[in-house]
Amino acid sequence: xxxxxxxxxxxxxxxxxxxxxxxxxxxxxxxxxxxxxxxxxxxxxxxxxxxxxxxxxxxxxxxxxxxxxxxxxxxxxxxxxxxxxxxxxxxxxxxxxxxxxxxxxxxxxxxxxxxxxxxxxxxxxxxxxxxxxxxxxxxxxxxxxxxxxxxxxxxxxxxxxxxxxxxxxxxxxxxxxxxxxxxxxxxxxxxxxxxxxxxxxxxxxxxxxxxxxxxxxxxxxxxxxxxxxxxxxxxxxxxxxxxxxxxxxxxxxxxxxxxxxxxxxxxxxxxxxxxxxxxxxxxxxxxxxxxxxxxxxxxxxxxxxxxxxxx
Length: 311
Known about the structure:
The protein is α/β, with parallel strands linked by helices. It folds into 2 domains: 3-137, P-loop containing nucleotide triphosphate hydrolases (Rossmann fold), CATH 3.40.50; 169-291, abc- transporter (atp binding component) like domain (Coagulation Factor XIII, Chain A, domain 1, Distorted Sandwich), CATH 2.70.50. It has helices at 36-43, 88-103, 115-121, 139-160; strands spanning 3-10, 13-20, 25-29, 51-55, 60-63, 76-80, 107-111, 124-129, 132-137, 169-171, 176-184, 193-195, 199-208, 216-223, 228-233, 249-257, 263-272, 278-291. The strands form 4 sheets. A 6-stranded mixed sheet has the order 5-6-7-3-8-9, with helices on both faces. Strands 10, 12, 14, 15, 17 and 18 form a 6-stranded mixed sheet that branches. Strand 8 and strand 9 (132-137) form a beta hairpin. The chain is elongated, with a radius of gyration of 26 Å. The model has no long low-confidence stretch (mean pLDDT 95).
């Protein structure tokens, strides 16, 4: 039996009008606190709207995150992140159980933060934003738009967070001191969340406490598990920095296209002599993230252009 929402309001859900048809598996997505749980509780008949109407089958079931997965026959089923803690075997069984319910005409609504699960199970996706039905449609249309929204939100958050230096290891003879290590987006603003594909800048500020004939300043990017992604320094880039005198400060900027896959990275910075004697070495001193509007596997986002030729 279909579930009908007519201007249904249950804060933060606001004036929702939509129909979940018979025999449909509908994924309800959105950031936490935008009305997904309230929608499911209305659909299962556990709550009544403050305003508007909800028509739901008399035989409906609501399952929360900690509830046992009960897929016995029912007219309407609401799964509130119930699959989030299930292992692969239980999920495989659940997929078959949900398909049986759908074929028998049941209406299933479920919430999840996992794009792969949503793509595998859903007939349709409803995106709630600020309590409203922001978009609905096929997962191939809605999920990329949602990922783009999340990437933008993550980037805005990263711009508001001051970078903190927390090196896993710091060593050197003290002839120089790294004062700052910063990441900048293409707009020139400091940001600990970079957009995959944009022109990014890493800036190292070093103060010299003693004269140094030929200092070298460098960086190293690693994944959070320690895989070395990219490293360079002023010597490799054929830049001569010295000689420098005591009290002098240098600010070195490394600019590059951020062709990295979305995940978390760490940044190491160092000042040293050409023979490798460290003045100041800050290991994994800064954590930053790369965001994108879609998932990409691996580390290097090579942004392939794909063509197909039929033979």
